[in-house]
Amino acid sequence: MTTPSNNVDVPMKNPPFIVVEGLDGAGTTTQTRRVAEVLSQKGHAVDISCEPSDGPIGVLIRKMLSMEVAITDESGGLRPVNRETLALLFAADRLHHLEDQVEPSLASGAIAISDRYYHSSLVYQGDVDEDDTVDYGWVRRINERARIPDLTVFLEAPVELCLERLTTRDTREIYESQEKLARLETRYQEVMSFLEEEGQPILRLDASLSMEELTERIVEEVRSISS
Ligand code: TMP
């Protein structure tokens, strides 16, 4: 997806790969679009994309998340595909997304911004019920070919705020219950902390700030690392 602009977008020598992350309802999609618009107005070439991507695997994943595509069990009921299968599909979609959208954007000199990336897999596919164990290691391994972003923006949002925003949407995906969101929020904190400890650049922002302020803070940071 290319950002529409009336300005002449200037390609860069080393454009950064930016990721926007956060719980469902934290505003990742809104901020991805707004940041791209503002950067474009400022004359930067910018491409935005998302995960699940709009490629063939991403489209299948979205159908699975909304249960339009599901497994029929012995009693004729529907259940989602298991977590491992979904994790592999997300990892495959990610490599396709990188090859098909992110790498060509960066090669053309455009800043590439992705709404979600491997952090979401570590959080959502690493999420488990109480009696299960988290296998972050395996989720990381199947994603090890995915390049490390130059900046990850983490929109930290209280569960209540996310739920409030989600109730205005038409479809509820399989992750959107209060209890689940609360668990995912804890996982996000853990995942971002260990990636930070590894030295991955993460900008944490309070998602309850105004949309304008969030956009301004992100644009400022992206411009500071762009060359
Ligand atoms: P979206 O609502 O931001 O379009 O994302 C769709 C859902 O996909 C969201 O609930 C998070 C989930 N997801 C994963 O479970 N694993 C992943 O790797 C990604 C990228 C998204």
Describe the structure.
The protein has one domain: P-loop containing nucleotide triphosphate hydrolases (Rossmann fold, 3-Layer(aba) Sandwich). It is 47% helix and 14% strand. The chain is built from 8 helices and 7 strands, in the order βαβαββαβααβααβα. The chain has a 5-stranded parallel beta sheet with strand order 2-5-1-6-7, with helices on both faces. A hairpin with a 5-residue loop joins β3 and β4 (78-79). The protein is globular and about 60 Å long. The mean pLDDT is 91. The structure holds thymidine-5'-phosphate. Thymidine-5'-phosphate binds next to α4.
Reconstruct the topology from this structure.
Layout: E1 17-22, H1 28-41, E2 46-50, H2 56-65, E3 71-72, E4 78-79, H3 83-107, E5 111-115, H4 118-125, H5 136-141, E6 151-156, H6 159-166, H7 178-197, E7 202-206, H8 211-225
Parallel strand pairs: 1-5, 1-6, 2-5, 6-7
Antiparallel strand pairs: 3-4
Helix pairs in contact: 1-8, 2-3, 4-7, 6-7
Bound molecules: thymidine-5'-phosphate.
Thymidine-5'-phosphate binds next to helix 4.
